[in-house]
Amino acid sequence: MAVMSYIDAINLALHEEMERDENVFVLGEDVGVRGGVFLATKGLFDKFGENRVIDTPLAESAIVGVGIGAAMYGTRPVAEIQFVDFILPAVNQIVSEAAKTRYRSNNDWSVPMTIRAPYGGGVHGALYHSQSLEGLFSGTPGLKIVMPSTPYDAKGLLKAAIRDNDPVLFLEHKRAYRLIKGEVPEEDYTIPIDKAEVKRQGEDVTVITYGLAVHFALEAANNLEKEGISTHILDLRTVYPLDQQAIIDAASKTGKVLLVTEDNKEGSVIGEVAAIIGEHCLFELDAPIARLAGPDVPSMPYAPPMEKFFMINPDKIEKAIRELAEY
Amino acid sequence: MGTSKSILASLTSEKAKWMYRKMVEIREFEEMVHDIFAKGELPGFVHLYAGEEAVAVGVCAHLTDQDSITSTHRGHGHCIAKGCDLDGMMAEIYGKSTGLCKGKGGSMHIADIEKGMLGANGIVGGGFPLAVGAGLTAKVKKTDHVAVCFFGDGANNHGTFHEGINMAAIWNLPVIFVAENNGYGEASTFEYASSCTNIADRAAGYNIPGEIVDGKDLLAVYEAAERAVKRARNGEGPTLIECKTYRDYGHFEGDAQTYKNDKEKVEQRDHNDCIKRFKDYALANNLATKEDLDAIEDSVKKAIEHSVKFGEESPLPDASELTKDVYVSYE
């Protein structure tokens, strides 16, 4: 099995799906000739040509909206939004159109579309190149939000998203692109979109998180193992709709739960995870549910000390797990 | 370089020297940022304005501190032309506590209320409605202030372009929309991404004047902006000015620019430089002496060196600054 970076896994999934199904096409800003600013779409233009790898003007609302219209006529568009921070002009198209089309048309029309966007900070991008905006879209029935943590999951989930018959917002942590490497099979496989996965078995404390923070949690768990603290880690993978049973099982396993997100704390998807645990696991809990999240400030600032303060890291997670273990 | 006599008449030596200074400030600032970025001394990424100086300076030459501008991700030139402090700007790009935004914003988000600088903007097309809002206030409050929206050719395909200009037109607002058409929206050419031949052609759809100028010719920009600002102050409504220009560097620093051709790069940098063109003109028309311009260049070099020293030596902000200014403080 080949070891590859997170972004190469994304790129491989796109190549494979475009080869497999001629209805799959890619559109976005500089995704063609240039291969995307992060090179996620590298090589596609040369292989599949300008009708299937389409450079668009800088116009996010239309990038998404055009994808929706094309998807309604039987294609499977993969729209790239260059940074998730740029997606906001397209919110109307995503929430009002893509997510509601099947429901409002009595199942006549559907939007089998994937919208890919890099999110997250720690790359010195300042306010509009660092945000986590999944919380803005969660709570939109009709839309699915997938946020893979590993190259293996990224490939399998992106392929599943492209084949899904409903719109999927596929968010990729931009710092994971080249930082995270892992084994990725070269053969075809998909991963079910609505399933969370236990990334580590443990007995004392449960961490529930997603995206890049999964790796920080794994690092923290390995350090704590030496102190005799055993950490159970659940990777949500899909943050909307949530895999409720996996959350209940993971919380019940240890009775002590730490929820981690890089998004602002209030209004983030982990608040909903906490609500599920509160509804279902009252008698299984041995400690209050703990949350570790970005501070409630408008965006990640530019100056390094503030960015560092904002970012989730293994030390913060380790400290939070230790506090729960000692509770 | 074709320039009408009326310009020469209205252009004082003092103004010419001010404009020369501002253009050189922008160029030297950007060259310095290019160097310190390459050395890895800056914590974030930057988009440089070098090559487009004549646009920001030719327009801002007609503005006061009470007039407002909105800027772009390529905003250093607009900030300098509008009078933002060089030390405060450089410190911001270093992410220091003495920066104009105390290190929170960085290169792409410099704002300065004292100078009417509504802000550089990390979002393409973000500025159109803001400038219209500033113009609406000027009209309703009957000030004679104007608002200028600087934007790139990439933004002219954004929805906010249409929404903003249409509103400014129906309400006859004192807003000047200044397109900086440098030929590229990120890595895509203007010709590929835009259905129009000229951005200014789109003005016809809004029933406002649209003017095309050589953005490398400071006086052409100056003259067009003078007319537009005058119209705006007289209550005659918005204008769209398209400045055909060229960015000397890439979309961002580190951009390999494989989408540009080398011939065009050399031609623009070496044979169509806006600063050199204006310098020649100013000397030929006795607006300044060589000694005047040399002194300006020396003084600017020192100012830029000072800004770097200031940026380097200023302290980083404390992490606790992060939670300040989320909402108004009544303390």
Automatic annotation (TrEMBL), chain A:
GO molecular function, one term: oxidoreductase activity
Pfam families registered for this protein in UniProt: Transket_pyr, Transketolase_C
EC number, UniProt record: 1.2.4.-
Signal peptide: none
CDD domains according to UniProt: TPP_PYR_E1-PDHc-beta_like
Cofactor: thiamine diphosphate
First-level EC class: oxidoreductase
Keywords (A to Z) from UniProt: Oxidoreductase, Thiamine pyrophosphate
Domain Transketolase-like pyrimidine-binding residues, every copy: 4-179
Keyword Transport (UniProt): no
NCBIfam families, sorted: PRK09212.1
Stated name of the protein: Alpha-ketoacid dehydrogenase subunit beta
Protein's organism: Terrilactibacillus laevilacticus
TrEMBL record, chain B:
Keyword Oxidoreductase assigned: yes
Keywords assigned: Oxidoreductase, Thiamine pyrophosphate
Domain Dehydrogenase E1 component: 21-319
Cofactor requirement: thiamine diphosphate
Gene3D superfamilies: 3.40.50.970
InterPro entries in the record: DH_E1, PDH_E1_Alpha_Subunit, THDP-binding
One Pfam family from the record: E1_dh
PANTHER family according to UniProt: PYRUVATE DEHYDROGENASE E1 COMPONENT SUBUNIT ALPHA (PTHR11516:SF60), PYRUVATE DEHYDROGENASE E1 COMPONENT, ALPHA SUBUNIT BACTERIAL AND ORGANELLAR (PTHR11516)
Protein name: Thiamine pyrophosphate-dependent dehydrogenase E1 component subunit alpha
Naturally occurring in which organism (per UniProt): Terrilactibacillus laevilacticus
